[in-house]
Amino acid sequence: MLLISMLGVYSVYKSYQLPNHREITALDNINKGLAISQRLVVKKSRQSTVRVLSINPDTGNIATSTGTYITAFKKNYILTVKHGIISDCENTKILVEGEFIDCGKFVVLDSYNDYAVIKLDQQILNRKPIRVLRDIPRGKQWKKNLSVMTKVYYTGFPNTAGPLSFSGNIAGFTTDEYIYLDSYAWSGSSGSGIFSENGKFIGYIVAIDVGATEFGVQVLENIIFVVPSYRVDWSFLFLNNQ
Fold first, then answer.
1. Looking at the structure, do residues 102 and 68 belong to the same domain, yes or no?
2. Angle CA(126)–CA(190)–CA(172) in degrees, nearest 5?
3. CA-to-CA distance for 185 and 167, rounded, in angstroms?
4. How far apart are CA 182 and CA 161, in angstroms?
């Protein structure tokens, strides 16, 4: 009886004990009220996101963006935006939970589609890369994954805060097939990987919209431009020297 009483008191004590910082900020601390499929997508998004810093030693300027940790053929890369790279590989770092990871080398710097691929010489132990060849839609899967009002999720570092996770909906498309996303973004969100509701990696953020009003040019932080991931030339994954 004494043991049962002590266990009861301990159980009550634990129920009133506040969670610690690590428990609250854990990447898998996701609302259990979401559907299982939604939780899995949010978890994939959170576990694959990193922050990218590029430092110009001549000017002292620092560009900050978001990147997606990807893997293929046992090699690890970061996909981010080209406009976030303002220096060489030596002055570009991947920041994960306060630790800096070196850039191995730039594999692709594509100004037209605004993406950069960074090869890493090591794994990121507290992040889980997406298996990019499996997670990109194929063929007619794209039509479903890009249908208007499809629910999407992403995790990034707007205004250097984060990782912060957001949901949104596909609202439409530009004439050159960029995706209009109704969600939220700000400077620093560029490069964030966008995942559809079935967990497919469908694109990355490049910009937020601006519009002219009677008060001048204003930012529409809820309208986001996303480059679909089929615009990335994934052939670098198959090259032996990469």
1. yes
2. 120
3. 11
4. 20
**Rounded to the nearest 5°, which phi and psi values hold at 224?**
-120, 140
Judgement on whether residues 87 and 151 belong to the same structural domain of the protein: no
Residue 137: is the preceding peptide bond cis (ω within 30°)?
no
Count of the separate structural domains present in the chain: 3
Residue 239 lies in a domain: no
Q: Does residue 237 lie within any of the structural domains?
A: no
Tens place of pLDDT for every residue, the chain, 242 residues?
655 665 555 565 555 677 787 777 787 788 888 899 999 999 999 999 999 999 998 888 999 999 999 999 999 999 999 999 999 999 999 999 889 999 999 999 999 999 999 999 999 988 999 999 999 999 899 999 999 999 999 999 999 887 999 999 999 999 888 999 999 888 889 999 999 999 999 999 998 776 666 666 666 678 899 999 999 999 999 885 55
Measuring CA to CA, which residue among 119, 118, 59, 110 is closest to residue 83?
Answer: 110
Residue 153 CB neighbours (<10 A): 22
Smallest Cα–Cα separation from 227: which of 196, 187, 193, 198?
193
